[in-house]
Structure formats: C-alpha cells, structure tokens
Amino acid sequence: MILDLLREMEDRNTKLAGCLEHGDVEQALIHHAQIKSLILAAAVAVLRGEARLTA
Length: 55
Fold this sequence. Notes:
It is elongated, with a radius of gyration of 13 Å. With 55 residues, the protein is an all-alpha fold. The protein is built from two helices and no strands.
C-alpha cells in the first residue's frame, strides 16, 4: 500500500515539475493538491499500522 502511494507521489511530482517548467500553473496546482492528498493518505496508513511495504 505505502509503495503504491509513494509511486503515485513520484509520478505526480514528475508531472508537477513538467507543468512548472512549461508555465502551466493551473495544472501544477492540481498536481500539488493531489500530492497533498497522497501525503495525508500515507500518514493515515502509517498511523493505522497499515503501512506495509508490498510490491
């Protein structure tokens, strides 16, 4: 579960960087919000003890 969240965060960070590089602020804000949501989901998983490293 946590690996899936980390992979998704990495993907969103890459997309965010591309948006910022090309000046697409609106799409960058969307990716930023999605990253924040993924961080919260990961934190909840850790607090609930659901943070298993599974492939």
